[in-house]
Every structure is written in structure tokens, then in C-alpha cells.
UniProtKB/TrEMBL annotation:
Region feature Disordered, mapped onto this chain: 1-21
EC number(s) given by UniProt: 2.7.11.1
Protein name, as recorded: non-specific serine/threonine protein kinase
Family: Belongs to the protein kinase superfamily. RIO-type Ser/Thr kinase family.
Enzyme class: transferase
Annotated keywords: ATP-binding, Kinase, Magnesium, Metal-binding, Nucleotide-binding, Serine/threonine-protein kinase, Transferase
Reactions this protein catalyses: L-threonyl-[protein] + ATP = O-phospho-L-threonyl-[protein] + ADP + H(+); L-seryl-[protein] + ATP = O-phospho-L-seryl-[protein] + ADP + H(+)
Gene3D superfamilies tied to this protein: Phosphorylase Kinase, domain 1 (3.30.200.20), Transferase(Phosphotransferase) domain 1 (1.10.510.10)
Stored PANTHER family: SERINE/THREONINE-PROTEIN KINASE RIO1 (PTHR45723)
Entry-linked InterPro entries: Kinase-like_dom_sf (IPR011009), RIO-type_Ser/Thr_kinase (IPR051272), RIO_dom (IPR018934), RIO_kinase (IPR000687)
Domain of life: Bacteria
Location of the RIO kinase domain: 31-280
Length: 294
């Protein structure tokens, strides 16, 4: 494959911390209004997805909007077992599915008609893509959570039958508290000691993923939460496996994004050294798997 083409494709995936700023002022399309998501009487909630989540007993209601990103908006909600983070993907037409093709490459779609519908970006195709995106995020969350990694606990599943029914929302445990959700590492000030600890945990987190055969695909302080001196990895729809022909480049780019985004915390490293350290740690024993209660 043409290397220049690949670079351009990877560039297009737009995950580098420096370039993100550019998009800040862009009008966010397909954004739901908070007033459509809340009501005293759940039957009066205008938004179908939220009503469905309440009907199925996953949440009792939305509490606040936490953060609106390019592809999804994060909300704080209450659920039967505590605070919930609802990641609600945008309306279909407003989603870019940014460079989805590069992440899907090497993954078997399995159905020629589905493949064609997705390539054509028809409404049906977009619905399938949205469903795949949500399912992928849940499936990855479950795998990583059960393997003992530092990720939020998924709150629907592990059966796809259950979690596919929450599309276009992904429900997971809220890290932090309702009043004070955990900040991202990109948003906090750290003491030098905290910065070193956060760095080591983040490198180890990348190694934990690699040990399982994954590259995060968007690994930087923008997707790492910081709570009680612990790093928690988030945002998994674009996780890729070794089957992806660009796996090594994605891994290297993750190392680079991590290094670049940690500079503001005074950590000076380079991508090659970091990647070698990640590969070394990946050969060591990983965290203890979590035991699932029946
Ligand atoms: N489990 C969680 N607990 C607390 N906050 C969370 C959790 N998951 C996500 N968040 C918050 O919601 C934001 C959006 O989540 P995420 O990164 O998964 O979505 P995104 O669509 O990729 O957003 P962005 O475009 O900003 O990266 C995160 O930056 C973080 O602040
Ligand atoms: Mg993110």
C-alpha cells in the first residue's frame, strides 16, 4: 500500500491532540437538546432513546450534560446501581464516521448487502454503521473490563442481545461522582510526582491493551480519565486488532499521541522509546481478570 496514501488516511482520522483545537468552534450538528431528554414524567420525554433506556430499567433519568464531542455527547444519568455515563451518539446524518473504513479494514463484515449499504452511506447503511459502532464499543468494554483493565464497567450486556437494544447509546459506570465527574488527563494540573505516576500508568495501560492484541487507535490524555490517582482508559469504538493491516502504524501513532499529549505535564519521552517500553511490558504478566458475578 502506498505509504503517502496511508499517512493521509491516518491524518484524516484526526486524533492528534494539536489538531483538535481547530474543531472547537465548529457548529455541532445532530445535537440533542437537553430539554428533550428530561421530564418529571418519563412518558413525556421527547427523545425515543432515553425513553427506551428508562422503560428497560437501565436508567431512571438524565441528570446533566457532561460533554459534547464530535461523534457523541456524554450525559450523567442515574441508574439502579448508581451513576451512569450515557454516551449518546449523534443523529445518523450528522455523523462523519471519521475514517471508519481504515478501522474496519481487516474486519469481516460478513454480508455483501450490508457492506454495500454501508459503503453507499444510505440511511440503512448508516443505521448499520451506527449499530456496529455501538456494538464495537460495548464488546471492547466488556472484553477489557473482564480482562481486569482500568476501563469503566459496561452497564448493559455482556450479551449483544441486551446491549444492541440501547443503540445509539452506550451505558457505562460514571467515573467520579455525579457532582464531580472525573476529569480527563488533558484537563488537569498534576504535580511532578502525579505526572510520573499518570505517565507510567498510561504506558502500562497501552501495554495491557497490546497484550490482548489491541491498539486503542486514539490514545492520548484526551481519552484518559484521572480519578483518585488512577488512570482510566475510555473511548473504544476504534480499537483495532492485529488483523488490521495498519496495526503497527496505529500503535506507533498512539505512542506518539501519548508522548505529545503528556508534554504539558512535563514528561519528556519519544514515541520509539515509549513503544519499546509498551512492547516490553506487554510481555509481562497482565492484571488479574475480574470475576463476573452471576
Ligand atoms: N465512564 C466515564 N466516566 C466519566 N466521564 C466519562 C466517561 N466516559 C466518557 N466520559 C467523558 O465524556 C467525554 C466523551 O467521551 P468519549 O471520549 O468516549 O467520546 P467522544 O465522542 O470520543 O468524545 P470526544 O470527541 O470529545 O473524544 C470524555 O472526554 C469524558 O470527559
Ligand atoms: Mg474521546
Amino acid at each position: 500500500m502506498n505509504a503517502r496514501w496511508l499517512d493521509a488516511e491516518l491524518e484524516g482520522a484526526d486524533t492528534s491532540p494539536e489538531r483538535r483545537g481547530k474543531f472547537k468552534k465548529k457548529k455541532l450538528l445532530g445535537r440533542r437538546k437537553l430539554e428533550d431528554l428530561v421530564a418529571e414524567d418519563p412518558d413525556q420525554i421527547a427523545d425515543d432513546t432515553i425513553r427506551r433506556l428508562i422503560d428497560r430499567g437501565h436508567i431512571t433519568g438524565i441528570v446533566a450534560e457532561l460533554k459534547s464531542g464530535k461523534e457523541a455527547t456524554a450525559y450523567v444519568a442515574r441508574g439502579p446501581r448508581g451513576s451512569v455515563l450515557v454516551k449518546l451518539y449523534r443523529e445518523l446524518e450528522a455523523r462523519s464516521f471519521k475514517n471508519d473504513a481504515i478501522y474496519r479494514e481487516g474486519q469481516w463484515i460478513g454480508d455483501v448487502r450490508a457492506e454495500r449499504a454501508m459503503q453507499g452511506r444510505s440511511r440503512r447503511g448508516l443505521e448499520m454503521l451506527q449499530g456496529m459502532w455501538v456494538s464495537a464499543e460495548y464488546a471492547h468494554l466488556w472484553t477489557l473490563w473482564q480482562a481486569g483493565l482500568s476501563v469503566p464497567e459496561p452497564l448493559v450486556g455482556p450479551s449483544p442481545f441486551d446491549y444492541e437494544a440501547t443503540t445509539p447509546a452506550v451505558l457505562m459506570r460514571l467515573i467520579g461522582s455525579e457532582d464531580q465527574p472525573a476529569p480527563r488527563l488533558s484537563d488537569v494540573r498534576l504535580t511532578p510526582e502525579e505526572a510520573r505516576s499518570a505517565w507510567h500508568q498510561s504506558v502500562r495501560g497501552m501495554a495491557d491493551l497490546l497484550r490482548l492484541g489491541y491498539a486503542h487507535g486514539d490514545y492520548s490524555t484526551y481519552n484518559l480519565l484521572w480519578w483518585e490517582n488512577t488512570v482510566i482508559i475510555i473511548d473504544f469504538p476504534q480499537l483495532t486488532t492485529r488483523q488490521n493491516p495498519h496495526f503497527t502504524q496505529l500503535l506507533r501513532r498512539d505512542a506518539q499521541s501519548l508522548v505529545t499529549s503528556f508534554r504539558k505535564h512535563g514528561i519528556q519521552s519519544d514515541a520509539e522509546t515509549t513503544l519499546r517500553e509498551v512492547q516490553r511490558l506487554a510481555r509481562e504478566r497482565g492484571p488479574e481478570p475480574r470475576v463476573m458475578l452471576p
